[in-house]
Design brief:
Elements lengths: L1 H61 L2 H9 L2 H14 L4 E5 L5 E6 L11 H10 L2 E7 L2 E11 L3 E10 L2 H11 L2 E7 L6 E4 L6 H12 L8 E5 L2 E9 L7 E9 H33 L4 H15 L14 H28 L9 H18 L2 E9 L2 H8 L1 H17 L6 E6 L2 E8 L2 H15 L3 E3 L2 E3 L3 E8 L6 H18 L3 E3 L4 H16 L7 E10 L4 E13 L3 E3 L1 H11 L2 H21 L5 E5 L10 H12 L6 E6 H6 L1 H13 L3 E7 L6 H4 L6 E4 L1 H4 L6 H16 L3 E5 L4 H9 L4 E3 L7 E2 H10 L10 H7 L1
Parallel strand pairs: 16-17, 19-21, 21-22, 22-23, 23-24, 24-25, 25-26
Antiparallel strand pairs: 1-2, 1-5, 3-4, 4-5, 6-7, 6-10, 8-9, 9-10, 11-13, 11-16, 12-13, 14-15, 18-19, 18-26, 18-27, 19-20
């Protein structure tokens, strides 16, 4: 068995080792070649940048009037000074000024000393043909990167050249930037004439090898491996611009030994590991072959037991060897599997955010609670609790705050439970509580206590949130005998609580059909806008002072294809509950402002009022949407009136006040709608940035026959005027009421006496032809005397 183990080890390890060895070396070579090619690109960019620098410097000199004057007059000291200063400024190694005939006037090296330049005329021939010339050439037995430009006044009077020497200094600078060895070669037809290099030691043999590589045509643009002394170099020939019979180029190199350096330690470790493994296999193989059969049999039994889901018993192999470790691993594995199964089971039946039982767990426990209640003849209440306006919290404060609200609500509700009551997160912002009780009174008491607990102020960091919650209750067996029935009817009751704003509602028999009808309406409402089912009606508002109609109120109507016209008080609450209200409000604002612009084009100076819901006041981007529509149609903001109810403002007074101030800053007017039916708090009213106060029609419609309502209307008008507010009376349906309002100095009247709400075409005709004629017969003086 030992021989078999050793043979198996060798069979497995040797191919692995050689494959790894080959792969690491190939990877090193590939990375080195890639680095060389990348460095070549950097090298080319740097050489090009040097050429641009030279050209800019030469053009700067030749454009200088003083320099051109010195050249024209032969002012040698000035010429030398300018050439030295400009050449020193960019660290040029060569500056040459010559006449048009090629006669050198001045030639300086980088220190300002004269520098023989040899046959300058041959270089000028190329410059004359090209107007200017950028090249690499041998000057004074040394290669330079050179730029030659004419000196014009305005016709050429001389030639100016400037260049960098391709020497060890430049090679070293380029090495720092490319991280490659850089050598410059100048090759005449026979033998080398110049070599500058960053190689650590350049002897003749290395030079010969380098030049041989440079002369090879196949090496141009392709990395080659060249032996240099004791090391091999990946070598790349970069030809530079040639001049005459001399070929000048750069040789870029990267040491293969350096490329392999990072892999050498890994290779040594791999060899060491292979040797130690082989020795360990040899030593341990003898012992293992004598102590395997029984422990392996025990492990096989344990595997079958674990396969069947039995994790209670540990594997009975107590040894200090590999089999003992394997047995210990088996034991740890089965404990880990058991723990993970428990975690999976917990996650399957618990909410990950609040750690409360989830919907699946609720279903199981509700079925059990129903069986228990049936056995004990007890009553069981299913309470469905939903956090009102939770979407606004997410939208305005972020999902992180929303999550913390849900966590805190879960803790709060769990702390308020008594006995064996069960709490679960049903989904989103909905929680379900199961409570057993002897009678309905006990269940109602527990539900009321839970509702009060849910609506207590909640502190999140430095913020104090005032939450509202709607709670619906369904009772077993009165409202259902299955879990599905009780949950559905508790949800229906919760929705009724939202609609009635009563915080809690008990399911009422027969509400299922209405619930299904509402669900279908919500689905249909999402398609109402694209299907063109929504329509705006407009009800005129009469100015009692001028007896003119200056404004109308926009009222939304839904023409359902199956159910006919559905009133707003039926579908608007559905839109608020389902989150569609934002879409409806944006559509209404767009249509109202578009219609306002259309009337202006017809010379109708008519303002339009539209209603905002409580959900709208929780939308922080509402002012921006409104401004965008006003800008699109060029409508004066003062012609738009936004009506909000007292109740909507008080749902979150602080945030609503901020939004109202931003809306007022847009230039629109604001009105309090249905005044007198909500909080009617003067302390809040005085802080609101409103322009109008609209008296609710419940007072106006009966004021002609009810003296108390008349007193309320008259007092409200006087109060509003004292606060600088305009007053609109809604619900004017007879002439007597209109005359009394006139006598009370009411500003605007609205109601069926003036006009019922009309579609846009009819109201346009009415405004064009009838908006004053209907009121000419009223005896306004009599109304004043009666008041």
């Amino acid at each position: 068995m030992t021989v078999m183990l050793l043979g198996l080890f060798v069979l497995v390890q040797l191919p692995t080792f050689f494959a790894f060895y080959y792969a690491t070396r190939q990877s090193a070579v590939t990375q080195a070649q890639t680095r060389l090619e990348s460095g070549a690109g950097v090298f080319s960019d740097l050489m090009h940048a040097h050429g641009i620098q030279l050209l800019d410097a030469v053009q700067l000199i030749t454009s200088d009037f003083g320099f051109k004057q010195a050249v024209a007059t032969g002012d040698t000291p000035t010429i030398h000074t300018v050439l030295y200063n400009q050449g020193h400024r960019i660290a040029a190694d060569l500056v040459v000024l010559s006449g048009l005939d090629g006669q050198v006037v001045a030639s300086l090296d980088g220190t300002g000393r004269p520098l023989p330049v040899g046959d300058w005329s041959s270089l000028l021939h190329q410059a004359e043909r090209n107007q200017q010339w950028s090249t690499v050439s041998m000057i004074g037995g040394k290669p330079y990167q050179l730029v030659i430009v004419p000196v014009k006044a305005p016709t050429p009077i001389a030639w100016l050249g400037m260049g960098f020497a391709l020497d060890d200094k430049l090679a070293g600078s380029l090495k720092e930037q490319t991280r490659l060895e850089v050598s410059f070669l100048a090759q005449p037809v026979q033998g080398p004439t110049w070599l500058s290099s960053t190689l650590p030691a350049v002897d003749p043999m290395q030079t010969a090898s380098l030049l041989t590589t440079a002369r090879t045509p196949a090496s141009h643009g392709t990395p080659q491996l060249v032996r240099m002394g004791r090391d091999d170099y990946f070598t790349l020939w970069q030809p530079l611009q040639a001049a005459g019979n001399t070929r000048i180029g750069a040789v870029l190199q990267f040491s293969r030994d350096q490329a392999l350096q990072t892999y050498r330690a890994l290779e040594r470790e791999l060899i060491l590991i292979a040797l130690l493994s082989f020795i360990g296999s040899l030593v341990g193989g003898l012992w293992l072959s004598r102590h395997v059969t029984r422990p392996v049999s025990n492990l096989a039994v344990a595997v079958r037991r674990i396969e069947q889901g039995d994790y209670a018993m540990d594997v009975g192999v107590v040894r200090d060897d590999e089999l003992g470790d394997l047995a210990g691993s088996f034991n740890r594995m089965q404990r880990g599997i058991a723990q993970r199964e428990q975690q999976i089971a917990h996650q399957a039946y618990h909410d990950s955010l609040t750690s409360l039982p989830n919907r699946a767990s609720l279903q199981v426990q509700l079925d059990g609670a129903i069986d228990t209640a049936q056995t004990k003849s007890h009553m069981l209440a299913v309470l469905m609790l939903d956090i009102d306006r939770f979407k606004e919290i997410n939208d305005t404060m972020g999902h992180a705050i929303g999550d913390r609200v849900l966590i805190e609500m879960g803790k709060r509700l769990r702390a308020g439970l008594e006995g064996n009551a069960m709490l679960a997160r049903f989904g989103g912002d909905e929680f379900v509580v199961l409570i057993e009780g002897r009678d309905v009174e006990q269940l109602m008491h527990a539900a009321n206590a839970l509702s009060q607990t849910a609506t207590l102020p909640m502190r999140i960091d430095s913020m104090e949130l005032f939450l509202d919650a709607s709670l619906g209750m369904a009772v077993y067996p009165e409202h259902g005998v299955t879990a599905e029935e009780l949950l559905r009817r508790a949800d229906i009751a919760m929705y009724d609580a939202k609609q009635a704003r009563t915080r809690m509602q008990v399911y009422q028999t027969g509400r299922d059909a209405l619930h299904l009808y509402r669900l279908s309406l919500v689905n249909d409402l999402r398609r109402a806008i694209p299907n063109g089912e929504l329509e705006l009606y407009y009800q005129p508002k009469l100015n009692l002072g001028s007896r003119q109609v200056g404004h109308v109120e926009a009222l939304l109507r839904w023409n359902h294809p199956q159910h006919g016209q559905i009133p707003p008080d039926e579908f608007i609450p559905l839109a608020e509950h389902s989150g569609i209200i934002r879409m409806l409000t944006d559509w209404v604002m767009h249509e109202v402002i578009r219609q306002c612009a259309a009337w202006s084009a017809q010379q109708l100076d008519i303002g339009i009022a539209l209603n905002l819901s409580a959900m709208d006041l929780g939308c922080g981007d509402l002012p921006e949407l409104l401004s965008a529509h006003l800008t699109t149609y060029g409508v004066d903001p003062a012609r738009i009136i936004l009506e909000v109810t007292e109740t909507a403002v008080m749902r979150d007074a602080v945030y609503a006040l901020e939004v109202l101030n931003r809306l007022r800053a847009c230039g629109v007017k604001l009105a309090i709608d249905d005044f007198g039916t909500g909080y009617s708090s003067l302390s809040h009213l005085k802080r609101l940035p409103v322009n109008e106060l609209k008296i609710d029609k419940s007072f106006v419609m009966t004021m002609a026959d009810d003296n108390d309502d008349a007193v309320i209307v008259r007092s409200t008008i006087e109060l509003a005027h004292n606060m600088g507010l305009k007053v609109v009376a809604e619900g004017v349906e007879d002439a007597r009421t209109l005359e009394m309002l006139r006598g009370y100095r009411c500003d605007v009247a609205q109601g069926y006496l003036i006009s019922r709400p009309l579609p846009v075409k009819q109201v346009t005709d009415w405004l064009l032809h009838s908006r004053t004629a209907a009121f000419e017969s009223l005896d306004w003086n009599t109304a004043m005397e009666e008041a």
